[in-house]
Design goal:
The complex is a heterodimer of chains A (353) and B (492). Chain A is of the alpha+beta class and 353 residues long. Chain A is 22% helix and 36% strand. Chain B is globular. Chain B starts with a helix and ends with a helix. Classes of the chains: A alpha+beta (353), B mainly alpha (492).
């Protein structure tokens, strides 16, 4: 069943709307990530859903209930939509328990709902503390508990992990997902971090220029991107102009099978982890290592083919390659093919670094 | 609405001034005496502002940036004169040296009381200045003094000019100390013309001129400041290393000590001496208590009215920025520019004509305080509400609380300390206010300020001393609260 439906949403601030006909459907109980570069309208979408910003056209509904439409505007307090802002935004004058209890009726407070939620986010026994005494991650946990307490139809999370350092972020992501699953809450997470969106969400909505570029599972978005722009945005890529025919693309890296039966001239895309290096230089296309970026868990190797084309390869485990080494390259798996006529590269969608 | 109500009496004053017709206005304006009064007041304001600028910037730099011995203590002592009303300072000086008078006396006393108005904002600006900017200037080959001129001075310029403006406005509208020091200033001219003649039209005209002078000054400062807009550096500023004074240490320390002795030592010593003299002569305790009660009730009522009017205006200005917020900012400077004597005069005319049943009754005086100090309170409310982030209100709404409930449960508790601090400031200012109180006080009620003024006028220093002492105490309580609040706010 669909919990949250957005249809043809147009909204913005100046004469040019930020959101230009956005459609989105989030099934009940799922965690959807809204992914997009800054300025694509993520925050505006969030504010329209929460009732903090009016829409111009379109419709927002929670289940069967219309929340926003042209002449409908349900007040934020009557929507049943929880909000976890960036950096938590706890009420500094209330204790942790006071924050979590803020949206509860008096009866609910006595039910032990507050303790239940604090346990859920791993902060049992912290009720008497003041927000200033908590770390950044703990504040985010309280903010989530506070939003979940009144059992909202949907919880909106606005880049909740962006201010935390890497280790903490990982741990908190896992805990937040567990807490959302445990309560069965439907959640919408706004982020500009591809890894975060792909790693944590059931469903990824890629937003571009105020419209939906693609809505799918993380695997779909990564492996079957709707267009080149999405492909470049959600992950690292090796791109060639190439000709395809009979399910095979003629690329500088040799013949690579492509998905779909398209033939003709266009752009072929493979992910760097599909490019394998044979350090002994025996089988495959000859290339020269130009640079190596070591990431710890893996490494990115920059290579130049003999015809001058640049290729990136992601290599697991120990690697002996050094700049200047001659190696051989092979490609595994299938590539994506985007015919030239229908797939102009979208300039607004920057490639991740 | 509140702003309109506040400006009504002033509009009335302008109307009243025009009643005599253009000829009368012209005649009064071109009188030799009017011009002389104006020249004297402007001269005094300029001289005091300049002196305060020098003392304030030097003092702030010594306290914040140098390795002056005991600079923390000096920092506190150099701000304390702010708590001394200028006419109390004037009283303590002439009680000690009765011959002190005229331009020199007014210049000395006002400078010693007012230099913290420059020192305080400049010290704050120096503290907030990112030392990286100065370090970059040094690394680009500029010497320390050149760096001060090129970088530091630019950074503190807005704070310094704003402080100097406050000083100049204060001097222009000051009534108590110039009258005690027998310096024939513009405000004195207004008061004598109000007291001495049946025709009060000249007083109204002069009152308008004083407001106009103040507005011109404010506009000039705004332009000067606008040109010197400084981009604030990003990131948390570190504390910069203190600059070694070297051989200048001892003279600098001596200078600071002399300044503290003159601005604080003399008033305290003189007050203590005359309190002792007065004790042997016997203090009129019931009178003192009555005056204290008068000050507390009148100021309390004035504060309550002011804050009640200020809360909606402040919230509006904070949450819906734009024209209104700019209007409030301008109004707050115009508010500093509104001399108490003009507002008093305006309300006298307004009271006699429009609301005679309120004339010389407590509500009228409370209203005068509200007109005078509303901008002060609005500024405090606005700052307090601005510091309560709007995202908290949004979260509260998403948790099912309506607009009003959100204001009550979130915004007001967060803003309360700031609003209370603003109220303390207004109360302190009401308690110190002299000219409007003198003109509008309820019949039969005396306040500490009016008693002090009338005793000093007839050189009854021993009789005046207890009033001065109690006034300092009454004004000090909210000042201490205010200081506590600011310190706590600074830590968060």
């Amino acid at each position: 069943m669909t919990a949250l439906t957005v249809e043809g949403l147009i909204a913005g601030y100046g004469p040019e709307p930020v959101l230009r006909g956005l459609d989105l459907a989030v099934p009940e109980g799922s965690l959807a990530a809204v992914l997009g570069p800054s300025g694509c309208g993520k925050t505006t979408l969030l504010r329209v859903l929460a009732g903090l910003h009016p829409l111009r056209e379109g419709r927002v509904a929670l289940g069967e209930r219309v929340l926003s439409a042209r002449n409908v505007h349900i007040a934020p307090e009557r929507r049943g939509i929880g909000l976890v802002p960036q950096e938590g935004a706890l009420f500094p004058h209330l204790s942790v328990a006071g924050n979590v209890a803020f949206g509860l009726s008096r009866a609910q407070r006595r039910d032990g709902r507050v303790d239940e939620l604090l346990d859920l986010v791993g902060l049992g026994g912290y009720g008497a503390r003041m927000p200033a005494q908590l770390s950044g991650g703990q504040q985010q946990r309280v903010a989530l508990a506070r939003a979940l307490a009144p059992r909202p139809g949907v919880v909106l999370l606005d880049e909740p992990f962006s201010s935390l350092d890497a280790g903490l972020r990982e741990e908190l992501r896992a805990d937040v997902r567990a807490a959302l699953r445990a309560t069965g809450a439907t959640a919408l997470l706004v982020t500009h971090d591809q890894e975060e969106a792909l790693g944590v969400a059931d469903l990824v909505a890629v937003l571009r220029d105020g419209t939906m570029a693609q809505l799918g599972t993380p695997q779909q978005v990564y492996l079957q991107p709707a267009d080149l722009g999405v492909a470049l945005f959600v992950g690292d890529a090796v791109v060639f102009e190439a000709r395809t025919g009979a399910g095979v693309a003629e690329t500088p890296l040799g013949q690579v099978p492509v998905e779909g039966g398209d033939t003709g001239v266009g752009t072929v895309l493979v992910r760097p982890e599909q490019v394998h290096i044979d350090a002994a230089g025996r089988a495959g296309v000859a290339a020269t290592v130009t640079d190596v970026f070591f990431h710890g868990h893996d490494a990115t190797v920059l290579l130049r083919l003999d015809d001058g084309a640049e290729v990136r390869s992601r290599v697991q485990g120990p690697l002996q390659a050094r700049p200047g080494d001659g190696v051989a390259l092979t490609v595994s798996g299938t590539a994506r093919f985007f015919p030239a006529a229908t797939q102009p590269v979208t300039s607004a969608m920057a490639s991740p670094s | 609405m509140a702003a309109v109500a506040a400006l009504l009496p002033l509009g009335y004053l302008v109307v009243r001034a025009w009643e005599g017709g253009g000829d009368t206005v012209w005649r009064v304006l071109w009188q030799e005496r009017t011009l002389a009064l104006a020249a004297r007041s402007i001269g005094l304001a300029a001289a005091v502002a300049l002196a305060c600028l020098v003392l304030g910037v030097l003092g702030a730099w010594l306290v914040v940036r140098s390795d002056l011995p005991g600079r923390r203590v000096a920092g506190t002592l150099l701000v304390l004169p702010l708590a001394v009303p200028s006419y109390v300072a004037a009283f303590t000086w002439i009680a000690q040296w009765p011959s002190l008078s005229g331009f020199g006396g007014a210049f000395l006393v006002l400078t010693l009381v007012l230099f913290p108005y420059v020192l305080l904002p400049v010290a704050a600006a120096l503290r907030s200045a990112d030392p990286a900017l100065e370090e970059v200037a040094r690394s680009l080959g500029k010497s320390a003094p050149r760096t001060f001129m090129l970088v530091t001075l630019r950074h503190i310029r807005p704070a310094a000019t704003a402080g100097a403006l406050l000083v100049a406005l204060y001097v222009l509208s000051d009534f108590g100390s110039v009258s005690l020091l027998r310096f024939d200033a513009f405000t004195m001219g207004i008061y004598t013309s109000y007291q001495g003649t049946f025709d009060r039209t000249p007083a109204a005209i002069l009152g308008c001129v004083l407001v106009a002078l103040a507005l011109v000054l404010t506009a000039g400062e705004r332009r000067a400041r606008g040109a010197a807009a400084v981009a604030s550096a990003r990131g948390a500023a570190r504390a910069s290393a203190p600059v070694p004074l070297g051989k200048a240490r001892i003279p600098a320390l001596l200078g600071v000590v002399v300044l503290v002795v003159l601005s604080l030592g003399v008033p305290v010593y003189s007050l203590a001496r005359w309190l002792l003299v007065g004790r042997s002569a016997g203090v009129d305790v019931p009178d003192l208590l009555a005056a204290t009660w008068g000050t507390v009730t009148v100021s309390g009522l004035g504060t309550a009215l002011t804050v009640v009017l200020a809360i909606p205006v402040g919230i509006l200005a904070a949450r819906y920025p734009g024209r209104l917020a700019r209007g409030v900012e301008l109004g707050s400077f115009a508010g500093h520019a509104l001399p108490g004597i003009t507002v008093g005069l305006a309300l006298v005319f307004f009271g006699i004509r429009v609301a005679p049943e309120l004339y010389q009754r407590t509500p009228m005086l409370a209203f005068a305080y509200a007109v005078l100090f509303l901008p002060l309170a609005v500024g405090a409310v606005r700052t307090a509400v601005t510091n309560a982030p709007p995202v908290l209100e949004e979260v509260s709404r998403s948790l099912g609380k309506g607009r009003l409930a959100t204001q009550l449960l979130v915004t007001m508790p967060l803003a309360a300390p700031g609003v209370l601090a603003g109220a303390a400031l207004v109360f302190l200012t009401c308690a110190k206010e002299l000219p409007a109180t003198l003109m509008l006080r309820p019949t039969g009620t005396d306040t500490l300020a009016t008693e002090l003024w009338s005793s000093t006028e007839i050189a009854a220093f021993a009789a005046a001393a207890p009033y001065a002492a109690v006034l300092l105490i009454v004004a000090a309580v909210p000042a201490v609260l205010l200081d506590q609040f600011l310190r706590r706010g600074g830590r968060q």
